[in-house]
Amino acid sequence: MDAIKSAQIQNTLFNQLTDKNLQRLRGQSEFGKGASQKEMEKVA
């Protein structure tokens, strides 16, 4: 039972870290830059 609980806790922490990393990558990524460039082209 304790092993299952600790595995669930580790899983939750890992998921939180993964979410934060994904958000950071999304903010810095070329994908975000490309999307804003496309929107600027539409306006122009």
TrEMBL record:
Organism: marine metagenome
Protein name (database record): Uncharacterized protein
